[in-house]
Each structure stands twice: as C-alpha cells, then as structure tokens.
UniProtKB/TrEMBL annotation:
Name of the protein this chain belongs to: NADH-quinone oxidoreductase subunit D
EC number: 7.1.1.-
This protein's encoding gene: nuoD
Low complexity: compositionally biased ranges: 11-20
Top enzyme category: translocase
GO molecular function, one term: NADH dehydrogenase (quinone) (non-electrogenic) activity
Organism per entry: Streptomyces sedi
Length: 403
C-alpha cells in the first residue's frame, strides 16, 4: 500500500497443493518515477583522493551496486617507450627505473638483462649475487609501502607509521650503496656501478633483521583488527581464470591461486641457487584479505632471500662487479625478450636492435597495466562502498600503467 504513487499487481502463479492454497501476488510500490530503475554514470578520478594517483574509473551504478566498470588510463603517459629510441643503452636505464617508482632497482634490472642477452655478455658472479640481494631489498621496500598504505585507505592510520619505520632502515642502506634514495641508477650493462662501501654488508644485515622483527607487529595490528577483516574478507574475489585471461601476475594473481613466479619457474640472476630459500606464497580465496596476506608473507620471504644472498657474498672472494665496455656500446642486430619477477608482477622488455647505439624498439610490458584491467571484470556486482577496498588491494603504481 502507498499513500501516493502507484501500485502494480502481477499474478505470479499458483503454488502448493494443500487446501486453501491460492495465488501469490507481487506488488511494486513507488512514488512517481522513482519506481523505475535508472543507471547512474559515476567518474572516480582522475583526481579523486581515493584513487592511486591519476587513474580514472568510469562506473555505471544500479543503486549502490556497480553494474559496469571501465579503467581509463593515460593521464600520466610519459612516452617512455618512444624516448628509449633516441637514447643510447646507458641512458635508457634512467628512464626505465621511473615507471614504478617503488621498484626502481627492479626496473633497471630488466633493461640491462635484455641488453646483456643481446650482447651475449656474462656478468661477474659477485655482481649477480649483489643484483639478487638488492632486488629483494627493493621488493621489501615496495611491499612495505602497500602494507602500510592499504590499511590507511580503509581508515587505519597507525600501520603506515610502522611500515615507514621498517622501510627507513632498508632505505638507508640502499641509499648508501647507490647514492639514490628512490631512483638508484645502480645497474649498468655488464654489472653494477661500483662495489660495496666498506662495512656495508653488516649494516644491510642489521637492517634486514630490524625489518623482520617489525613484521609481526604490523601483522598483528592489521590482521588482528576485526574492522579490517570485515572490510576485506570475501570482498573483491578475483577468480583464477579471470587472472589468467587478463595476464594478471605477482601477489594479486598468487592470492587467487595462480602459482607462478619467474624466480622459481624460469630462474634468472642467482635465484636458481636459492631454491631452498625461495617460497612462492599463494592463497586460494582471491579476495582483498588474501592479497594482503600474500604481500605480507612474500615480504618475510624476501628478507630471508636477502639474508641468503648476504651469506653467499661473504663466501665470495673480492672481484669485479662489472665488465669493461667500449666507449660507444652497440647491440647486434636482432631481437630479444627478457622478463623479471618485479615486486608487483611480471615485467617484460622486448628489445629490437638495428645494430645502432640506440634501440630500434624497446617495448615495456608492465605488471600494473595488465593487473588493473581485471577491474572491469571484478568490480561489476560489488557495492560502491567496497570499491576503494578492492582498488587499494590491487597494489598498483599509476606510472607503471601509463608508461
């Protein structure tokens, strides 16, 4: 019944056989045109405070529920791939380490591995182990940022202070060895820029131990919070077949049960010798909580890998960390593809050379670009209130999308 508006009565059919069973009716009551369903188009971004940088989401809403979602990218596009073509093989490293500014060392690494593969160049053993160590320290720095910032997006202020406390010790040793705080520029074609400062391995080991000691505190604070559990458990479930279809990789894919990690499945650097320490963390739930748990456990394993690298470096005799290169470095004509397990997922570098000192083409396959596309499948059917929780759990960097 309604005081104003209209009421429509529809015969739904007869059910039941007991005496007295009759017909059931469905009544829709509304006020004026409010009885009719109307979709709303809502733009989240490109400057909305709950997005990660300059990302735009175009949502179609049916009431409080999302019916369509389209990630609109390109607002930060730097044209890096085109800029690669007018810089020599030494200069392109400075561009490559900036698309995911939380994983700068890993970004540099993929480029130099591709060039070294084209040249057929062997890197000194000491440089191989140092690269592996620094890549894992960079992985921890990346993960700690998201472990602290994700609870912040759900209303938890304290975890980010703990995460930054743990980050600072590792940041300090990386800055000491490379001279850069965010953009390290420490990789070179043929190895690394220079050897370690005196006493650095001891300081690095202390920083790793300090970060490991702080992880249980962060875990208890976040995972032990019932509000965080309520906002993330069963929310934003990414099915493994969807992850595979969109090329989702890294912690997000492994949280959905996609058991794939290049460090184990196609070893590079020294990962083939670290099989006993390397543990590929997976979950099957595929929800926001699982993605956070994978990131947390993967951080702990990265610290174990860093310790294993430090142990191996202590056994190695002193030696070079790079190869002597000609003044003008030219890659032979041809093409190659190198991929690495970056902190956020698989990064691929397709290098085409015409025998010049600059690449003819260097195509970058970034993890965040593929990962974010899965939102068009994941968000429909979810509530607007859960959108920020889902978005934050995808752990992306916008520069890694708009490369």
């Amino acid at each position: 019944m309604a005081e104003t508006g209209s009421a429509d009565t529809e015969t739904a059919g007869t059910f039941g056989t007991a005496a007295g069973a009759g017909t059931a009716t469905h009544t829709t009551v509304g006020v004026g045109g409010a009885a009719e369903s109307t979709d709303m188009v809502l733009n989240i971004g490109p400057q909305h405070p709950s997005t990660h940088g300059v990302l735009r989401l175009r949502l179609v809403l049916d009431g409080e529920r999302i019916s369509q979602a389209e990630p609109v990218v390109g607002y930060m596009h730097r044209g890096a791939e085109k800029l690669f073509e007018v810089r020599d093989y030494r200069q392109i490293v400075v561009l490559a380490n900036r698309h995911d500014w939380l994983s700068a060392f890993a970004n540099e690494l993929g480029v130099v591995l591709a060039v070294e593969r084209m040249l057929g160049m062997e890197v000194p053993e000491r440089a191989v182990w140092l690269r592996t160590l620094l890549a894992e320290l960079n992985r921890v720095l990346n993960h700690l940022m998201f472990l602290g910032s994700y609870p912040l997006e759900l209303g938890g202020l304290t975890p980010i202070f703990y995460a930054f406390t743990e980050r600072e010790g590792l940041q300090r040793v990386l800055e000491e060895v490379s001279g850069g705080r965010m953009h390290y520029m420490f990789n070179r074609v043929g190895g690394l820029k220079e050897d370690l400062p005196a006493g650095w391995t001891g300081r690095a080991r202390a920083a790793v131990a300090e970060a490991r000691a702080g992880l249980p505190r962060l875990s208890e604070l976040v995972l032990g919070n019932e509000v965080f559990q309520a906002r993330t458990r069963g929310v934003g479930v990414l099915r493994p077949e969807t992850a595979r279809a969109y090329g989702v990789s890294g912690p997000i894919a492994r949280a959905s049960g996609v058991d794939f990690d290049l460090r184990r499945d196609e070893p590079y650097l020294a990962y083939g010798e670290l099989a006993d320490t390397l543990r590929v963390v997976t979950r099957t739930e595929g929800d926001c909580l699982a993605r956070f748990e994978v990131l947390l456990d993967q951080t702990a394993n990265a610290l174990n890998l860093a310790d294993a690298c430090l142990d191996r470096l202590a056994e190695l005799p002193p030696g070079p960390v790079n190869q002597r290169l000609p003044k003008v470095l030219k890659a032979p004509e041809g093409a190659t593809y190198a991929w690495t397990e970056n902190p956020l997922g698989v990064n691929g570098y397709y290098l085409v050379s015409k025998g010049e000192k600059t690449p003819h083409r260097l195509k970058l396959r970034s993890a965040s670009f593929n990962n974010i596309q899965a939102l068009r499948e994941l968000l429909p059917g979810t509530l607007v209130a859960d959108m920020v929780a889902i978005l934050g759990s995808f752990f992306f960097v916008v520069g890694d999308i708009d490369k």
